[in-house]
Each structure stands twice: as C-alpha cells, then as structure tokens.
User: Fold these one by one.
Assistant:
Number 1:
Amino acid sequence: MNIYQILDKTHPINASSKHKFIECFEEVSFPKNHLIIRSDKVEKDIFFIKKGIARTFSNFDDSEVTIAFGEEGDTIISLKSYILNQKGYENIELLEDCELYKISTASLQNLFATDIDIANWGRKFAEQELIKAEQRFISNQLGTATERYIELLKKHPTLIQRVSLGLIASYLGITQVSLSRIRANIT
Amino acid sequence: MNIYQILDKTHPINASSKHKFIECFEEVSFPKNHLIIRSDKVEKDIFFIKKGIARTFSNFDDSEVTIAFGEEGDTIISLKSYILNQKGYENIELLEDCELYKISTASLQNLFATDIDIANWGRKFAEQELIKAEQRFISNQLGTATERYIELLKKHPTLIQRVSLGLIASYLGITQVSLSRIRANIT
DNA sequence: AGAAAAACTTAACAAATGATAAAAAACGAA
DNA sequence: TTCGTTTTTTATCATTTGTTAAGTTTTTCT
C-alpha cells in the first residue's frame, strides 16, 4: 500500500498540501523481529506500513499485553511520544520483514501548525484511532474469550496465518494454553 | 468548571478564535437520570460538563458495559455520531442534575474547516481521548479485578461516593456481586 | 416517621480461565 | 534430511469470576 493511498484513507487533502506532506516522508526497511518502538524512549518518528506486519505490546511486571496488530496501511506509533512527547507504554516489534514510510513528529507538528488541511488530516487520524480503540475496548469487555476469538477470525481471517497463537492469546487477554483449549472446543 | 477552562484544558486557542468558538456554545440543564445520548440515534450535538456527572454505557443482547464516567470538564459525546455521522454504540445518562455546555457537530465541522487553531484544538481533543482510551484498555487487560478496583480508588476517590456499586462493577467488567465480594476481601 | 424501592452483602454452587507440566507437532538451520 | 528449537495440544488442579437466591442496609418518596 503506497503513501498516497495511506494518507487518503484517513482524509482527503488538496494536491498542494499533499505534495508538501509527502515530501516529509522517507522510505525505510527493517528485518523481522526488529524492535522499532521502545517504551523506555521518547520516539521521534512515526511509521506507516507499506508492506509487512507489526505488533504493539506493553510490559508490566512480568506480564505482557498485546495491544494491537498492524497490517499494511496501519500506523506504527508510540502514542505518548506522538501526543505528549513523553516516554510511552508501548513496544512495537516487526513480525515480518517490513517496508515502512517514516516521518518525524517534528515535521508533523510543523505541518499541523501551518496547514489547515493537514491539521484536519491529523484530527481525522486521531479520531479514527479513537473509534478503533473504543470498539476494541467494548468487544473485550463483552462476552467470553471464545466469542472474542470467533469475532477476530471473522474480522481478520489472515491474521491467524501470519501470527503465532501465543500472540493472538495475549491480544485476546488470555493465556496461550486457554486459547488452545478454546480452539479445541469450537471445531 | 466554565467553558474557558474546559477549552483551554485541551489546547490553547488565540483570543479571536476562542471568541468565535465560544459564541457557538449554549448553556443547558438536565435533571438526574436524563438519557442525553442514545445509541439508536445520530446525535447532532456534543456537550461539556459544567457541573454534574454522567455515565457512558453500551448495551448488547441483555448485558451492559459501562465505558466511562464523566465529571466536571469532561465531554458527553457519541463518538460514532461525532466522527462518522453514524448511529453510535453509546448511551449516556446523567447521574446527577447537570449543567452543560452544548455545541452542534455542524458548528464544529464548520469551525474546523475554516480556523486552523480550532482544527488543532479538535485534533488535540481526539488525541487526548485516544490516550485515555488506550490507558484504560491496558489497565483492564492487566491484573485482576481487585487490582483494577484499587487503582480506580486511587485515581478517582470521589467517584465511589457519587456512583453506585453496580455501575462501578460494570465499569470494571465484573458483576456487582463480585465487586461486593472483592470489597469484603480487601478491608 | 413509615412504607416501598433500591442498593449492598453474604453464601453456595457452577463455569471460565490460570498455572504447571508433559507430550506431540511444526518449523528452521546446519 | 536430521537435530534442536519453538509452537501447539492435552491434561490436571487451583483460582477467579459468574449465577442465583436470600437477607440486610440504605435511600427515596409521601
């Protein structure tokens, strides 16, 4: 998915603003297993996935939560770095070799402050992420792990082939062993 | 909390834009138990709480999830109406007699399209809600209901006095009976 | 104040999930 | 391919949370 499609997906931008915007991006590649965002750092860049898949997760004590998976067109971002310029709670690792579009938060802030079309793009971007976050929250509060797993299968059927069971389980908020048991029961 | 404080809390706006912005608000009052946002409607307005407390919840089948409580300075909003102009999944009821500031989404869209300062205010607003949503999600995935209850007590000590146990339980994702048992165990 | 309604607690049993361990299957590198 | 590693399954037992029901306390209304 190229950068034009990625930006347009969020919000249309007029041609001259879009040109200015796209000039700030750089294409980069990283290998599988690369830890691209670290929770102990204020991250200076955000990324969009051209090709590949990533996992956002958070560590506390000895346990780990998978917050999200990102596929082509999705964003790799430390929210607390991007929004508050603070150390985040997210780590993001690449689950495959990835091709990414990179832009610095400094460039973004500058574009937001000077171009109303891009400012509204930034607003739409946050709003769409917010909708996703709330839907995710509601579906995790409702129903059993079995229901959530079946819903995930329906919504992201390809994900199960690309990602290990343990990570899916951590995304669903259960242990890998529980998920294996659930799979045995629904077939 | 007045409308100046509420708007500034999110993002500073220059004086003339702020004046234009505030002119679009209207003060309204509603009694306790009023259902101000309904999930079966596209809502045309959003509200900020001057005085009082509200609860956002979602119904599916026969169960109900409390998504959030809103106190003074917080927003009463159907995200899907505001962002996508679609019917939402949220109901919002007032838990006390409330004084509110009201603005139409149409006015907001108009302000966003024409004033870069207000567009960036809208961006910051969505971003801050996003941070809250993600923190909430992470803390609900981690640890036991007991830990989440203790965390809530620390973060919002006044809430427990203003809101019934059943609603707190539904916020924590457990039943009222379970929460009562938890309270009996931690004292 | 007194009656009715709502909120909260307690208890017993059921269901879902966690923890641990061991075995089987799938995957990857030499 | 083959050996070693990782992933997945299966099983057992412990813990947490849900369900139902009954009883107590608190709040609300007249």
Note: The radius of gyration of chain A is 17 Å.
Number 2:
Amino acid sequence: MEVARELLGRLLLRRTPEGLAALRLTEVEAYLGVEDAACHTFGGRRTERTATMWGEAGHAYVYLIYGMHHCLNVVTVGDGHPEAVLVRGGVAVAGEELMLRRRGGRRRSLADGPGKLCQALAITRDDDGADLCTPESGLWIVDDGLRVAEGEVLRTPRVGVDYAGEAAAWPLRFVWSRYAGGR
DNA sequence: TCTAGGATCGGCT
DNA sequence: GCCGATCCTAGAT
C-alpha cells in the first residue's frame, strides 16, 4: 500500500530502439500477497507465471490477461512476501508520438488502463523480471521530485476483482484525482 | 491431457 | 451499457 501510494506521480520510462517514452503514473492498485484473494500469489500459490513475484523487489512482473493484453506490476516486499503494485494508468510526458503510433492513434485513451499502458510502452512478457531501478533494463521508474498532495489521492476498491470475496472491497486502488475519470 | 475462466479493451447499440 | 475477441494459466483428471 505504501509503494502504491508513493508510485503516484512518479515517472515510468521506456527505452527501445524506437526511442524514449515516459508516463507519469496516475493510477495503481496494491496486491497484498498470500492473504489477498485477488492476488496471483493468494494462499501461497507459486507457479511459473508468478515466479518473479516471489523474487526480488523492484522488478517487473508482467503477465498476459484475456489472451490478448499485458499487465505491468512492480514487485514490492520481496524476501518471501510476494506482493506487487499493478500499474493501471499514466499520462504522457515524453515520446507521445511514439506511444500514439503503438496505440493506433488513440490520443484520448493513450494509457488509461493496464493493457493500454503496456501497449503504449511496448511491454510484453519479455519484460518480466526487468529491473525497474536502472535505465539499463530499458524499463525503469524515477522520482523527479514531483509530489502528489494527500488531498489529491483517491482510494477505491480494485477493478475487476469481484470474485475475491472480502478482499474485493478493500480500498487498494489509488488514483490521482485530477486524472480520475478514465475508468 | 482437458477445461474453465480471467487484475481488459474497443466496437456497437 | 453490453458483448465478443482470444489464449494462456492453473487446477483437475
């Protein structure tokens, strides 16, 4: 929850042969590991897919959903505690034209959803395990000093986890209110 | 080996 | 607001 809150306003950068692109994060969700029924590692599940969630904090956990979209997560705790933050949305601060091309010219919904965000940044399963703390990975997060005021942080239940029982109601979705609206 | 279903998106009504 | 696309993953057999 702490990392989710702190990621709002941070920059997610992406370097590929096509060029540099950057998003300022506006929407994230916390997934609290083995005790969270909405989390892929609920109940201690440990599979090939979720292997990176069980690994070192600060790395990317990328998975495919609905057979066609990718979702990017930031692995948090580490040390046997497989928790993560799902990156759900951001606004362009660099490389907007490049991201537009990848998104098929959809300027109004460039990266306001986890699948769209991955498409805009060309993130796939190949990026699973990437070290998000160094530019050398080509996918990394930086703090440029900007801070999102506490009064601008909106908290709601997470999206699409109705099946998760009690956990479905936990207010683990963090949204930068000035960018709320797009889902 | 089989099967059900999913941390979504976009087009259509 | 509804619904189909599309295929991997995980659990059951």
Note: Chain A has three helices and eight strands.
